[in-house]
Design a protein that fits this description.
single chain; 338 residues; alpha/beta; Rossmann fold; six-stranded parallel β-sheet; six-stranded mixed β-sheet; 12 helices; 17% strand; elongated
């Protein structure tokens, strides 16, 4: 009996063309703003590999359904929706479809969705949520690959794609140092929260590299504007001289900004202010507009989906993969030229 022919996948086309899976999908489906040279290179790669763009034909040949399940515990959707958008972009219209399931932090509901997705013969799953700390694996010995996005699996053998929060905190401190601020305070969320601890520790470590330290121990509290206002009262009462505040979230930073203004401290002339998350609802409403660290959740979702596609095609990437954050500079840290 002859050996079954392996049919080319979108990942094969992307590899031959030297582009990402998302870019290859856009080129073949006429989506996105791509250079014509890139589109032609992808189409030529598809021709060389005899890539079949028809999903039904591919399914008959491969036994795959070209569907992926996505399970989230983020009922608000503030974190999971950008991750989903990035994942869908990489999976590609007409290439892979996504079933979205809301687990609502209920283990029983979550396991029901796992069984339902497997009964629908999905080719893989992406698991996401609203917190970055490790969680128990969604299942043992599942018959399809699973990638954890934004959250991580406690099993180091699983593939997890998480934001590089420590790297983001370092970028925040480096920016403040670059604009001449050296007396930096840090106001963040609850101490039991993994993100608060990671960001605070990274900020302190980066300052120590320059022989500096925070003007006061990190102030842990809530992820809220109310806590931001209260924290400014604590800093002023402690008489610690500070010329910058790095906040663990944009919500906290907006509260800090309001309290500084009420106390007669100008932002950024007297105190430079930087947040974390780059949540537009907060950064744009803040006066002045808030400099922040962007988690690049859509990019993280794309990376997770590309790793899932690679795993589906036999090339898994076990372990924890840190996705870089980026600095977005606005007027809260830069004095406008007059």
């Amino acid at each position: 009996m002859g050996k079954l022919e392996r049919h080319a996948t979108i990942a094969d086309v992307a590899a031959l063309a030297g582009v990402s899976v998302g870019t290859a999908s856009k080129a073949l489906n006429g989506r996105g703003s791509l250079r014509e040279e890139t589109r032609m290179r992808v189409r030529e790669a598809a021709r060389q590999l005899s890539f079949e763009a028809n999903a039904g034909a591919r399914s008959l040949h491969s036994g795959r359904t070209y569907t992926v399940g996505m399970i989230t515990t983020d009922t608000i959707g503030r974190f999971s929706i950008p991750v989903l958008m990035g994942a869908e972009d990489a999976l590609g219209a007409g290439e892979m479809s996504v079933f979205l399931c809301d687990g609502r932090d209920d283990p029983i509901r979550e396991q029901y969705y796992v069984k339902t997705l497997l009964s629908r013969r999905v080719d893989g799953m992406i698991v996401t949520g609203r917190r970055t700390e490790a969680r128990a694996p969604i299942g043992a010995n599942l018959p399809v690959p699973v990638v954890y996005a934004f959250i991580s699996s406690a099993d180091p053998g699983d593939c997890s794609v998480v934001p590089d929060e420590a790297g983001g905190a370092r970028k925040a401190v480096e920016h403040l140092l670059a604009v001449g601020r050296t007396r930096i305070a840090h106001v963040t969320g609850p101490e039991h929260h993994n993100s608060a601890r990671v960001r605070a520790a990274a900020a302190s470590e980066r300052l120590a590299e320059d022989g500096l330290s925070l003007v006061a121990p990190p102030l842990f509290g809530g992820w809220s504007e109310v806590w931001g206002r209260q924290a400014v009262g604590i800093l002023l009462a402690g008489r610690a001289e500070f010329d910058a505040v790095f906040c663990g979230s944009d919500q906290i930073a907006r509260g800090v900004c309001d309290a500084l203004r009420a106390a007669g401290r100008r932002v950024p002339q007297d105190v430079a202010l930087i947040g974390f998350d780059n949540w537009d609802v907060m950064t744009e409403a803040c006066q002045p507009p808030l400099t922040s660290i962007d988690l690049d959740l859509e990019g993280l979702g794309r990376s997770a989906a590309e790793m899932l596609l690679a795993a589906i095609n036999g090339s898994p990437s076990p372990g924890r993969h840190a996705h870089p954050c980026r600095l977005v500079v606005r007027e809260s840290t830069t004095v406008p030229l007059t």
